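Continued from yesterday's entry.
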Amino acid sequence: MLDTTGPADVAGVRRLARDGLLAGSAAAARPRALARLRGGVYTVAWPLVFTRITKPLEHRRRHADCARGLEWLRPDCLDRFHDDVEAVVDHTLRRATGPIGNLEGWLATRLTPATVDAHRRRRGEIGALQRPRLPAWLSGALDGDGWLCDLAVQLLVWVGVPATAGAELWPLDGWAARRTELTGEPPPTRDTLDREVERVLAAMRTRPAWYAEHVERPLGHKQAPVAPMPAELPALELVASHERADARLAGLAEQALRAIELRLNRGEAAAAAVASVVRTVFGEAPSSSVDADWLTTALADRGRLDEIVAAALAILHR
């Protein structure tokens, strides 16, 4: 949608806003005209949304890559960005009823209420509490424990958030840090936090209808947890090991032939040159795939050495 609106659409939106006619025109517009109005507002709004809402949020979430620009946003972050821009567009086309001389300036004052209202509306659509608060009955079921009551509120907030906790159902690492901050106690073990979450859920389940509507239903809208990828994937073997060994030997052979030819050109005796080079290249090179004992025996055998020398000279046309 970012590239479908031309300058004329944006100019038309600005003119209607200056004249105080933007909201009225949107309410009366036919579908095609309304789409052009939405596109014009979208074009004006999205840089403000990214700069003032998306970028700071991604920094808080430690998504440095997402904060670099639209093209770097991860899929879930990009979806959230588009949701926020759409919320601002909807808000503008409903609320821009008076003259607006500076559209960007007016939009900047509406970003937070527009996105917060839309966020609450989306939470309500899936059954999550729009403004999670601790019911008195739930506080009583938790014996008024400060940490467990806070955990209950965090849980009610989390079920309405589109994000997932990786392969986990609950963001336990974040809740562990919050527990330490609130109680002043050392970080809890995983088992301790699991038991505390289960105690809160058990208390919530004492009101089955409430639990089904405000916990189970919104949880059902989250994506299924994704199993973590291994830290390092095993390398894909494109070439068999014996083929790699043959390739190494071929390379060593070419290296040896060049060295033998250089020594022969200097006037060195063929047998001495070949024996020295073969022993150095194939006997000392790491991972040469040549058995060192076999090589030593072969070079010590005059008959075998003569065969090796003859083969080298034939290849070099000497």
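--- second protein ---
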Amino acid sequence: MPEPRPAPEHLVDRDPQVTPQQMAAALVPPPQFAQASFASYRPDPEYASQAEVRDAVETFVTTVPEPAKRGLFGRKRKEPEVPAKSGVYLDGGFGVGKTHLLAAAYHAATGRKTFGTFIEYTALVGALGFQGTVDLLRGTALVCIDEFELDDPGDTMVMTRLIKELTETGTRFAATSNTPPGALGEGRFAAQDFLREIQAMSDRFDTMRIDGLDFRRRAVDESASVVDDVPAALAAVSRPGGPARVTQDDFRSVVAHLASVHPSKYVALVDGIDAVGLTDVQAFTDQTDALRWVALVDRLYDAQVRIVASGIPLDTVYPDVMLEGGYRKKYLRAASRVVALTRAEEVPRAS
């Protein structure tokens, strides 16, 4: 006799509590990139930069940096005032494999290493304090930062200081973003008031541009999938080894709930879920709500949680006035990801 299917849960009932220790332990690649390697990266032959950047990142992460040169009596030899390049920065559009290469760098690196999104590192600073985060990460050989985006001056200052202090103790960095480091923060706050901090940070990276098409949209229609009956569609979701674990909520209720949960907890918010059901999806009218939704989409995508939704397609929830602003690339990244998640036939998971 088949095992009875459990009733859908509700995201709005979830209020995860995450300790700083759990946040630090979670600084590893998401499950879908647990086996990512340079060998498994498939560059598009139409775009030579993809193979070139793959090889450059592999060389960076597998090359042991030379120790500082020392002069007579063991003193460090004075060098010209040229910023040391302590990291690689992968700049490119959506779906060209930047996160895959970042995870491959993590797996190929020796020594202590961490992997997290930009927001996870800033949340760690919020939980441990700046010096506590420096103490935690000091001695790390490689720090991988995904989705590097500066949305406010505070984040700019924190990440500049963190990179500077860790660089001085030998830590190297690999980062990805849809924005070149010199343009971080552009159009979002008074970036001109923080140019020195932004420039100091970008000077520490070798920027590598990856061209190409979004692989998530190469073989699918341009819009996210919409269903008429969310409960029925959720009932058809399966997982290897037993019934799927799903949630069902009104879209506006989920958006309202996100305001009460810090984005650093969104990973725990969707932990263990196979599919998220959303009814009556509507366009955003508030940019803060839209940005919280983007952060949740990123975590759903990392965990490869299927989305089943009714209402308007989830890639059309951002009005033109938002898409014309400084967060355009964030919204387009989220739109790309929901196309993939709403069209997934089944999200394979271990039982």
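Strands lie at 87-92, 113-117, 142-146, 172-177, 205-210, 238-239, 242-243, 246-250, 275-281, 306-311. The two ends are 19 Å apart (CA to CA). Will compare against the first tomorrow.
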